[in-house]
Specification:
Dihydrofolate Reductase, subunit A, alpha/beta, 5 strands, 139 residues, 3-stranded parallel sheet
């Protein structure tokens, strides 16, 4: 697989170019600190990143067809997983994508708080993947 820079002004944002278009391309963005911790002892999220890092995260999110997040992250961070910048949404549309990526939550038991911010907006579909441990009534 060969990666090319999408836009020289968008440092670090790459779009895959592959000879096999049947295989999906997955880009992963992680947060990491020197001590390896991104939450407090009580699992409260900590805002340790810069504005530039946050802008990079949004640019990366704007490239994908879907944004995948784990149950613990969505519960702790309580985010909508949208694209707040209109210019990035317009670029998605110009590339033939929907204005917002599909939002995907992976949860072991599927017990996700329905009052989270992600459920307050309907700008993009939400798909929840779980295991057989998810109670039938929750499915």
């Amino acid at each position: 697989m060969k990666s090319v820079v999408l836009n020289e002004k968008v440092r670090g944002a790459f779009v895959p170019r592959s000879s096999n278009v049947e295989l999906p391309f997955v880009a992963v963005t992680f947060a990491r600190t020197v001590d390896g911790k991104v939450t407090t002892k009580n699992y409260d999220s900590v805002d340790f990143t810069s504005r530039e890092d946050k802008a990079h995260l949004i640019r990366q999110r704007a490239l994908g067809d879907a944004v995948l997040v784990g149950h613990g992250t969505i519960e702790n961070d309580n985010v909508r997983l949208g694209i707040p910048r209109e210019d990035l949404r317009k670029k998605r549309i110009a590339r033939g994508q929907s204005p917002y990526p599909i939002r995907v939550i992976v949860s072991n038991k599927g017990r996700i708080n329905p009052k989270l911010k992600i459920f307050e907006t309907d700008f993009a579909p939400i798909i929840i993947f779980s295991t057989t441990r998810m109670p039938r009534k929750t499915r």
